Amino acid sequence: MKTPVILLCALTFLVAGCGKKAPAGGSQSTNNAAAKTTNENYDSGNPITAPVDYLGAVGQAKKYSEKVIDSAQLSQTIQQFHEMEDHYPKNLEELVTTHYLQAIPKAPYGMKFVYNPANGQVKVVRAQ
C-alpha cells in the first residue's frame, strides 16, 4: 500500500519540477541566431502545447523550403535563359513568353519575388 503512495509522490515531484525556470538576475540566456529565429515562436517546452508547437514548426519549415526551392528554380531558369539568349530577361514574365517556364511559381504566402534584370538575381522578400 505504501508503494503506490511513494510512487505518486515521486511522480508529483517529477512533474512539478519539469518547468523552465527563469535565470537569476533577470537576464535571458542567449542562443545562436539560427536557433533563435527558427524556434523562438514554437519552443515553449510545455508538453501540453507540444502538438501546437510541432505544427507551427512544420509550417515554418514548409514555408522556408518552398521559398528556397522556388527561388532556386527561378535562378536556374534565368541562368539557362542567359546562356541561350546572351542577356538576362527584362522581367520574370519573359521567361514564360519565351517558353522557359510554363508559369511563374507563386511565392509563399506573405512573400514576393524581386527580380533584378541587371544581374539576373531573384530574391524572395516579405510582401508589404
Structure, explained:
The protein is mostly helical. The protein has helices spanning 2-16, 33-39, 50-85, 93-97; strands spanning 111-116, 121-126. The relative contact order is 0.09. Residues 25-39 have low confidence and may be disordered.
Q: How many strands appear in the DSSP assignment?
A: 2
Number of contiguous helices: 4
The whole-angstrom Rg is: 25 Å
Shape: elongated
The largest beta-sheet arranges its strands as: 1-2
**Percent in helix:** 40-55%
**Proportion of residues in β-strands:** 5-15%
Give the class from helix and strand content and strand pairing. Answer: mainly alpha
- Tell me the distance between the termini: 66 Å
- H-E string: HHHHEE
Could you name the ranges where pLDDT drops below 50 across 5 or more consecutive residues? 25-39
**Quick check: average pLDDT?**
75
Largest sheet: 2 strands, antiparallel
Topology:
Elements: H1 2-16, H2 33-39, H3 50-85, H4 93-97, E1 111-116, E2 121-126
Antiparallel strand pairs: 1-2
Structure described in brief:
By secondary structure, this protein is mostly helical. The protein has a domain at 60-128. 49% of the residues lie in helices and 9% in strands.
Task: Fill in the keyword field for this structure.
9% strand; elongated; 4 helices; 128 residues; 49% helix; mainly alpha
